[in-house]
Amino acid sequence: MNEVACDQVIDYQCSMSSTSAPYRFSFGPWNISEGEDPFGGPTRSKFLDEQKYALYRPLGFEGVQFHDDDVVPDLDSLSPDQVSRKVAEVKEMLTNQGLTPEFVAPRLWFASQTHDGAYTSNLAADRCYAWDRTKKCIDIARGLDCKAIVLWFAREGTYIREAKDARLAYRRLLGTINDILAYDQEIEIWIEPKPNEPTDQAYVPTIGHAIALAYASSSPGRVKGLIESAHAILAGLDPSDEMAFALEHDKLGSVHLNDQNGLKYDQDKNFGSANLRSAFNQVRVLEESGYGQRGEFIGLDVKAIRTQSGYPVTDHLKNSREIFLHLVDKVRSMDQTLVEQFRNARDYEAMELYIIKHLMGLR
Ligand code: XLS
Ligand code: MG
């Protein structure tokens, strides 16, 4: 083995042994849902958001992901005082439950002012609404002592290409990012890329687009990405490579681990349920990079199957976490020396058989 290869093995082993710290898991209240889809209403009774927070710790979760109106329902119709009181209430609840707010995301896709997108809408009044709502979201995050907001650019795209001037749209997105960075000197922005749905084409489809915006911004150190497995798959990309790209730029703020069966609607399946090997590789890349050691969460953006009954339905969260932890064991018990030998010999046939047998629990 040459010197460089030897160093690589040593580096890798160091990072493996130091990753024995347990992972911290998070999800958002929307991940406990009632089974509705675009073709049918709820299949389960409503379980109130306020009651969901008591479920986190027993399920093995510590982080809460919020939309702004998960923290403050009816946000648009409340006065600043009413908003502050509600934020204080939620902050106290989080402390009492032993929970950490991971991020707050402005929900910029339901209101009538967001029919045509928010920051990239063709209507100036809509863009004003989006900016006001974003400021409220930042204030809510700061009120909860939460260090990041997530921008999932839901309707920032088009159904038909001629509808918007795409270069102007990119300028508007970058302008908003810079406005956020100027409005608050500490908050981080984590951009969650997604290539489509609800729009036909989105302006920030991949982590590469998000990281380009980060570097172009006025404070690149405070702009990162949040990678959702299903969104990468929908873009025709491998989630583990997307994660590796972000990690190499020190720009992976968080993850939304889940799964997706092909280029269909956004399915939010349980982590590892459609492609176990892809899930293994996501865990491998996260482990090898020491992801989590600076407090980053393993977020699970998963949705319960519509036919599942129970009250509340939470098995999809428990099971996705369990699959993740089993895959951590698989990564840690992989024979790294052997893998390195296969790499050096470029014997990828033997490597593939080893990996598949390892995943199947065979020797
Ligand atoms: C939608 C996104 C969304 C974000 C949070 O596809 O995954 O749920 O994670 O707004
Ligand atoms: Mg998501």
H and E string: HEHEHHEHEEHEEHEHHEHEHHH
Q: Low-confidence parts, pLDDT < 50 over ≥5 residues?
A: 1-20
CATH topology annotation of the largest domain:
TIM Barrel
Output the CATH homologous superfamily of the largest domain. Answer: Divalent-metal-dependent TIM barrel enzymes
Largest sheet: 8 strands, parallel
* Helix content bin: 40-55%
List the ligand species.
D-xylose, magnesium ion
Rounded Rg: 21 Å
CATH architecture of the largest domain: Alpha-Beta Barrel
Query: Given the C-alpha coordinates, what overall shape results?
Result: globular
User: How many domains make up the 3D coordinates?
Assistant: 2
N-C termini distance: 25 Å
Q: With helices defined by DSSP (H or I, 4 residues minimum), what is the helix count?
A: 13
Q: Which features characterize this protein?
A:
2 domains; two-stranded antiparallel sheet; binds magnesium ion; 8-stranded parallel sheet; disordered N terminus; 13 helices; alpha/beta; 363 residues; globular; TIM Barrel; binds D-xylose; single chain
